[in-house]
Amino acid sequence: MKKILSLFAVMMFGVSAMAQTGPKIEFKEETIDYGTVTKGEDSGLRVFEFKNIGDAPLIINDVKSSCGCTVPTKPQEPIMPGKTGKIEVQYNMNPGPISKTITVQSNAVNKDSGIIPLRIKGNVIVKEEVNLMEKKKTLPSS
Fold this sequence. Notes:
Blueprint: H1 2-19, E1 25-27, E2 31-38, E3 45-52, E4 60-65, E5 70-73, E6 84-91, E7 96-106, E8 115-125
Parallel strand pairs: 2-8
Antiparallel strand pairs: 1-3, 3-6, 4-7, 5-6, 7-8
């Protein structure tokens, strides 16, 4: 019985040791809130910063957006342990509410299948332009 318990303990230690090694990703924030922004005054560019908190190189395999109005850019080189990286996201600033998901595929062992969903949210408004040449409407006097 002691042999079985000892074997079980060694196997559990081995499994936990394996789970602790490899690249691990930690984002500064997984949701960026644009707030209310004005089209033409905001470029729509935001940056998700992350760090490899693991002990092996972190590779970002792919970054995809939920629609064509959002263009993400991934790092081309592996992120070494202890180093930081960034994923840039360019939103096209269509007027209206923003609610988009960016899916990151990596070799991170601390995320299910290395997949991390990032989100952007907010609201884009159009600045009302005043035409100085337009004649102002006046109310008839009584």
